[in-house]
Amino acid sequence: MIPRMQPQPTAPAAGRPLPLEGITVVSVEQAVAAPFATRQLADLGARVIKVERVDGGDFARGYDTAAAGLASHFVWCNRGKESIALDLKDPRGLEVVRRLVAEADVFMQNLAQGAAARLGLDAATLCAAHPRLIAVDISGYGATGPYADKRAYDMLVQCEAGLVSVTGTPEQPVKAGIPAADIAAAMYAFSGVLAALVRRGTTGRGGPVEVSMLEALAEWMGHPLHHAMHGGAPPARTGLAHAVIAPYDAYPTADGGRVLLSVQNDREWRRLAEQVLGTPELGTEPAFATNAARVANRDRTDALVGKALAALTADTAVARLERAGIACARLRDVREVAEHPQLAARDRWREVESPVGPLRALLPPITLPGGDTARMGAVPALGEHTEALLRAVGMTDDEIAALRRDGVAA
């Protein structure tokens, strides 16, 4: 018998660099979709140069002041980047971007539809001039079709993609509490860049990458969409409950908490009845013995589960459910997530620098054991790197002074 191998210590961090070391990204970006995509690239080692407006920069900087005076959206999406503030309507500002792009591996933009093309910064134009460049256009609805010029904010796209129709209660549809359309587009832009870099490694050529928020979120609508398209009724909105499984909901506990549980099969129901509800006879009673019966008698099923959990604290309820082998979870608010014991146990929190001092942030979900940890660089101040980048593209002191004087750079 081959002896079982013992776990080996991981290699020193310096032994395996981050996968995007040496990749330079230039991004004319704003809000969430492009900034979140390029932040993933920065975390994996890429150098990301963020081009912002001179008059306030990325407008996400002004969304709120919740992060010690900075905007929470901006802090979340923009660590590890260099900020250069330019007026792209001035030919001199646009020329700086063109010089930066000439030395870059990736260019990304999520300007309003048509704006990048008017500036000559659309993917088709840039890739024709720079065959090795990977150029990403992120839009709301795509470059063609009747919605091409339609304004596309996250909530609007959630509505157009049908997400809102399946989220909420029977009485009230609601949008997702996070910018789901922006995040979906960002993650497809991120993975599109990685795929294009792999292809470039084989062919030597870059090329355009196109991502639309609508198409990204429509893909995420997979189960409801396929269910409805192929003969079923659109899934009903059921709040925290499940449309076709019972019991599957959140139930109040004696200490004011809420515990969500999910019974996936009839064996689990019998265990729940015996070990948590204290009424083993319910395991075989015809009104509850099968999932179809429990769904048909959902109100009675939920009342039985709710009564049992209402007599327990949340911690006791979770402990009993876990001993019975029933899937369960605490319904946590956002502050509780920030103190989640699993995130703490896995050492997922770090501090990143910012203009207002260190801020707490999560490590990115992609873990690459045996090498450098994610590069969680500082959140930049507006135009923090303008002068250094202008010098890097060959600007003289007099030219830089003129750009600043004329409001072309900040």
How does this structure look, described?
The protein is of the alpha/beta class and 410 residues long. The protein has helices at residues 33-43, 72-77, 91-102, 115-119, 123-129, 154-160, 180-203, 213-220, 222-229, 266-275, 291-296, 298-310, 314-323, 334-338, 341-345, 386-392, 397-405; strands spanning 24-28, 47-52, 81-85, 106-109, 134-139, 207-212, 248-252, 258-262, 327-330, 349-352, 359-362. Strand 10 and strand 11 form a beta hairpin. The longest helix has 24 residues, at 180-203. The model is unreliable at 1-13 (pLDDT under 50).
Q: For the report, how would you describe the main beta sheet?
A: 6 strands, parallel
Low-confidence stretches are: 1-13
The count of DSSP E runs of length 2 or more, i.e. the number of strands, is: 11
How many helices? The count is 17
* Helix content range: 25-40%
| Shape annotation | elongated
N-to-C CA distance: 69 Å
Radius of gyration over C-alpha positions, nearest whole angstrom: 26 Å
N-to-C SSE series?
A: EHEHEHEHHEHHEHHEEHHHHEHHEEHH
Mean pLDDT: 93
Main β-sheet, spatial strand arrangement: 3-2-1-4-5-6
Oligomer: single chain
Report the sheet-strand fraction.
5-15%
